Amino acid sequence: MGHFSSMFNGWARSFSIKKASSSGNCGGREAVEVMTREAKKNDLILHSSGFVNVNGSNNFTSLYSKRGEKGVNQDCFIVWEEFGGQEDMLFCGVFDGHGPWGHYVAKKVRESMPSSLLCNWQETLAEASLDPDFDLEAEKKFHQFNIWKHSYLKTCAAIDQELEHHRRIDSFNSGTTALTIVRQGESIFVANVGDSRAVLATTSDDGNLEPVQLTIDFKPNLPR
After folding, report:
1. Is the residue at 152 inside a domain?
2. What is the rounded CA–CA span in Å between residue 96 and residue 75?
3. What does the pLDDT look like over 20-33, one tens digit per residue?
4. Is residue 62 part of a domain?
5. Number of domains present in the structure of the chain
6. Is residue 58 part of a domain?
């Protein structure tokens, strides 16, 4: 609890100082930009076909995409090891564009979502830590879920607005799926829009691999 308490208190102080001058933007944007640059410098971010393995870590991540016969490959993806400077956190995202500008939309969302989500997550944590009744250890998983849910909602709304006002991208006739996963310790948080799919590989009692579908494909014929 000590590690989380000090982390919360540090972000809370930073947030309270910067909130007044943030003009609606995340107060920790500059810190997140520094984290992003450091992660790229240390090869912790992968957004093209290949693999990443952090020294001393048991994680091994690989990405692969192949262009189909329709023309431009509109797939974009990203993996960020040690997301937000936390050794136990990992961010994964898959963005499949559609429409004439789909590849631009997918690329823009890939570029914006991780840092925006991280910024909103830190801000939400800071706000929560200022609440005298907030106790992370009490119903820890419930609090973690709500913090990520709130962070995702703010992030998606901001990116949607950013795309709507983008002068060079037609986001009305084009768009992208957005399937992202944050692994925090032993917990996995999934956010999904569109028909990209997350599948978890598990081991059955007899030692065989078994797939577990984590998301529902959002399609026009999906029952309400």
Report:
1. yes
2. 5
3. 334 345 767 888 99
4. no
5. 1
6. no
Tell me which residue range forms the domain holding 94: 2-53+72-213
In sequence order, the 6+-apart residues with CB closer than 8 A to the CB of 196 are 94, 95, 96, 177, 178, 179, 215, 217
Neighbours of 128 (CB within 10 A): 19
Beta-ladder partners of 181: 92, 190
Angle between helices 29-41 and 102-129 (to 10 degrees): 120
The pLDDT tens digits of the residues spanning 85-127 come to 998 999 999 999 999 999 999 999 999 999 999 999 999 988 8
Residue 153's SS3 state is helix
Q: Is residue 65 part of a domain?
A: no
Per the CB < 8 A criterion, the answer to whether 155 and 116 are in contact is yes
Cα torsion angle, 219, 220, 223, 224, sign: positive
- Return d(Cα 199, Cα 189) in angstroms, integer: 13
